[in-house]
Amino acid sequence: MKVPTQIFLDGIQPKKVYYFGSTKLNTGVPHYFICVSRLDGGMLILVCCTSQFEKRKNYIEKANLPFSTLVWINPDTENGLEIDSYVDCNSYFDYSIEEFKNFYENDKLEFKGEISDTHFEQILIGLKASPIVEENIKEILPNSA
Fold this sequence. Notes:
It is a single chain. The protein is globular, with a radius of gyration of 15 Å. A hairpin with a 4-residue loop joins strand 2 (31-38) and strand 3 (43-50). It contains five helices and seven strands; from the N terminus they run H-E-E-E-H-E-E-E-H-E-H-H. Helices cover 30% and strands 27% of the residues. By secondary structure, the chain is of the alpha+beta class. Strands 1, 2, 3, 4, 5, 6 and 7 form a seven-stranded antiparallel sheet that branches.
């Protein structure tokens, strides 16, 4: 059952998992995204989940990035993920609450669940360890789960 839009918007918080297609990816296939931060002013910082472990691992190795920037999340009943998923913490996606509102009202976004504190902590560590993520983004991330 779909909840009213304002209740959905009020519930957007760190650790929540959403499923939607993004024009910011090089594919039209929907992906799972995890909210990492909700900023004053209505901006959201999210990371994207992928099932392509080898591809992400190879990229991280070739780019000589810290391996802590690749986080494995196993599926469970709480997070709503269907398969083993990986977050490459060397990239993030910013969206506005208004964009999420439009996605939700047009049935292009679903809330799926919430990741554990442990997985969230690993993602924060990965984002902060990444030499690619800008310092101003690292500064606005939560300190811990």
